[in-house]
Amino acid sequence: MNTAAGILFHDTRRRTLLVQPSYKPYWDIPGGIIEHGEAPKTAAAREVKEELGIVVRPGRLLVVDYLPQHRRRPEMLAFVFDGGHVDDTTIAVDNDEILSWQWCDGGRRADLLGHAPILFRRIHNALQAASTGGTLMLESGWPT
Question: 90, 1, 83, 5: which is closest to 52 by C-alpha?
Fold first, then answer.
């Protein structure tokens, strides 16, 4: 089973940091595929360092999202950790991997993730978990 880990950075206005990867057609939170033998938190921190040049210690687990195999997409588990706040001035994008980034409120998240409804639901639920102090188990972005 494929596994991925990402970090949800948010601010007091409930905006989230989204990145525009060069290798897929939709925006996402910073993160990526977990390598063999790598812990999810370690992978999330490594990916953020590679993509944004930020050294971060991921916070608590917000969501685990199970995605069953669907057409060409393999079965997958996606972990999302709380990243808390990040200072814009510390972001140094790796332009080979990331084309752009921006802080997004709910409407802008919907615009950028309209072609990725599972990801939109995952981020929405991660924000809920961050605000309530809980951790959610998801299936295709929906709470179980």
Answer: 90
Domain spans, the chain = 2-143
Exposure of 128 by Cβ count < 10 A (0-12 exposed, 13-18 middle, 19+ buried)?
A: middle
> How far is 135 from 84, CA to CA, in rounded Å?
15
Candidate CATH numbers 3.90.79.10, 3.50.50.60, 3.30.1330.10, 3.40.50.150; the one for domain 2-143: 3.90.79.10
pLDDT reading at 78 higher than 80: yes
Residue 7 DSSP SS3: strand
* Amino acid in position 28: D
114: which 2 tokens? 């309209």
pTM: 0.94
Question: For residue 53, what pLDDT is reported?
Answer: 92
At residue 101, does pLDDT exceed 90?
Answer: yes
